[in-house]
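Lab notebook, bench 4. Still working through the backlog of constructs that have no structural model yet. Next entry is a single chain of 138 residues. Request: give me the structure tokens for it.
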Amino acid sequence: MDDDFTCLRFDYELVHGQPVRSVVGEPAEGCGYWRIGIVTDNGTILISVDEDTDQVWVSLTAKELTTEDWKPVPFLQDWLGLELGWSWVGINSQGYKDTFILSCAGVDPQWAFVGEGSSLTCYRMTQTREPLGSHRDE
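Model written out:
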């Protein structure tokens, strides 16, 4: 895997289908996070942002996230016990890898983790999806 091409720094198949054990984060000023950790049996997915470029980096670590800086991420607690589904990587028009999208619902994207203002902002993707230009639009 070419680390210069993607923000995903490990083989996602190592965690795909794994149940989520906990979701913790290091809160930043405002409503963002410096880092978010999604704990599975096969390690912790660590989502972080580069403060200089707002690029999002996603790695897998065996480290325990036990310091007092790590707090439960309230809006992701409904993921506990669910299996990780697909993931996506977003690259903006300037070539920055500033978005990581994750699902606990198979192939339906649920949360976008976006590097903004040197921290992670999380967006829930809840809109019903229907392709534009389908036969239903006629």
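Notes after review: The mean pLDDT is 86. The longest strand covers residues 33-40. Flag for follow-up if needed.
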